[in-house]
Amino acid sequence: MATDVEVVQHGTVEINGCCKKGPGYASPIEAMDGPKESLIYVTCIYTGTGRGKPDYLATVDVDPNSPSYSKVIHRLPMPYEGDGLHHSGWNSCSSCYGDPSAARRYLVLPSLISGRIYAIDTQKDPRAPSLYKVVQPDDVIQKTGLAFPHTAHCLASGEIMVSCLGDKDGNAEGNGFLLLDSDFNVKGRWEKPGHSPLFGYDFWYQPRHNTMISSTWGAPSAFTKGFNLQHVTDGFYGRHLHVYTWPGGELKQTLDLGNTGLLPLEVRFLHNPSEAIGYVGCALTSNMVRFFKNPDGSWGHEVAISVKPVKVQNWILPEMPGLITDFLISLDDRFLYLANWLHGDIRQYNIEDPVNPKLTGQVFVGGVFQKGNTVLAVADDGSTYQVDVPEVQGHRLRGGPQMIQLSLDGKRLYATNSLFSTWDRQFYPELVEKGGHMLQIDVDSEKGGLAINPRFFVDFGAEPDGPSLAHEMRYPGGDCTSDIWI
């Protein structure tokens, strides 16, 4: 297999000749002029649904001129059951743009539950990816002590870095960062010994500022059992950002987000590599927190966007948070998009002034208090209401928007609706019963605005092996949540 990789890479060198181009794009603005997406890869989950099938990677046709538009055209099942596929990343991206020996060939699939990490070959046949290699959890645990892998990012060195959320027993104290070499062999841990904080989750690096920032979800021993508010009080969930030297791996600062920053999940810097500004979505308190570099080189933070909780009837609590579970930033750093999984809306904010984001678009695509559900929202005057969510191609929209992905040109936003099977069963039991789905939202990238595309609906409730849960999405050519520029 390694020889095959070398042949492909050498072929890339010959084709590019003196151009010295590697994968991706020279800048975020150049990426916006990249080819329009025609395929999208989606992690699909059976783990935790009781169906006894392995998770799989679905290939979806997103070319509106194709006869199989909005259809699953290929399914690659994993060789084991119980993996818990979750997030994904590439073996190389725009951080390797100047390296003609690199190729964006392998999609990296960490398994949150089993600890396996799969490398999927998308180059031999992009429409029908194949399994290249499996990194077994025993190898990772033996060499690093890490388990529960989550986020994978490629590095300019050709290595792959994966955040891990705990040790094999699910203790948060065991988290850290795994390094794999370019052929997915376990190299060790990235951070310096003694520089592993409590809790882990997502991370993003900004090389020109010699900084990597990571976020904190919670202890696997807690979140794998479902969400329990008492676990927050008991200290099983995070509220911190961790600031590391890059690429040194030294933990130099911890930002306590306090009670306004509970469960900080996805973390993104602005795409412009010269900017020392980013955001993190804090799920439980439903705030977008902006972080920034101070003149003295330290990092500060402040709440930039607040999604107010909604008073409700017939729910487990008297107030319901939006539960921001994912967000992203357009490649030109003009717009921020966030998904409120419980409220059911996707929002678009103009962040050209990053200190004062302005709401420019909103669309409801589900939610707990949509019409037809038993939960009622309570207005300020005491009256009750529910949100009218349209059907798409005759399908009632289930659950709420969870993962989102934006086209390179910023004009199409894709959304899936599964968070994590245990949490899905708790908050949206019909998702586990009927399966997830995927939508496409049309974006006004000039003045702002969002609208559901009525032509696009992927029903993962109609899969051959039974309803599955759809989570993260990736394009073969890279996207705004995986590419980092140096």
Quick description:
By secondary structure, the chain is mainly β.
Structural class of the helices, strands and pairings?
A: mainly beta
The total strand number stands at 32
- The share of residues in extended strands comes to 35-45%
How confident is the prediction overall: mean pLDDT? 94
Instruction: Kindly provide the radius of gyration, computed on alpha-carbon positions and rounded to a whole number of angstroms.
Output: 21 Å
N-end to C-end Cα span: 30 Å
Helix content estimate: 10-25%
Shape: globular
Q: Summarize the main sheet.
A: 4 strands, antiparallel
Topology:
Layout: H1 2-16, H2 28-31, E1 39-45, E2 56-61, E3 72-77, E4 89-90, E5 106-110, E6 117-121, E7 130-135, H3 137-144, E8 147-154, E9 160-166, E10 176-180, E11 186-189, E12 203-206, E13 211-214, H4 220-223, H5 229-233, E14 240-245, E15 251-256, E16 264-269, E17 277-282, E18 287-293, E19 299-306, E20 310-313, E21 319-320, E22 324-329, E23 335-340, E24 345-350, E25 358-364, E26 376-378, E27 384-385, E28 404-406, E29 412-416, H6 421-427, H7 429-434, E30 437-443, E31 450-459, E32 469-474
Antiparallel strand pairs: 1-2, 1-32, 2-3, 4-5, 5-6, 6-7, 8-9, 9-10, 10-11, 12-13, 13-14, 14-15, 16-17, 17-18, 18-19, 20-21, 20-26, 22-23, 23-24, 24-25, 26-27, 28-29, 29-30, 30-31
Please describe what this structure looks like.
The protein is mainly beta. Helices cover 10% and strands 36% of the residues. The protein contains seven helices and 32 strands. The chain has helices spanning 2-16, 28-31, 137-144, 220-223, 229-233, 421-427, 429-434; strands at residues 39-45, 56-61, 72-77, 89-90, 106-110, 117-121, 130-135, 147-154, 160-166, 176-180, 186-189, 203-206, 211-214, 240-245, 251-256, 264-269, 277-282, 287-293, 299-306, 310-313, 319-320, 324-329, 335-340, 345-350, 358-364, 376-378, 384-385, 404-406, 412-416, 437-443, 450-459, 469-474. The strands form eight sheets. Strands 3-2-1-32 form a four-stranded antiparallel beta sheet, with no helix packed on it. It is globular.
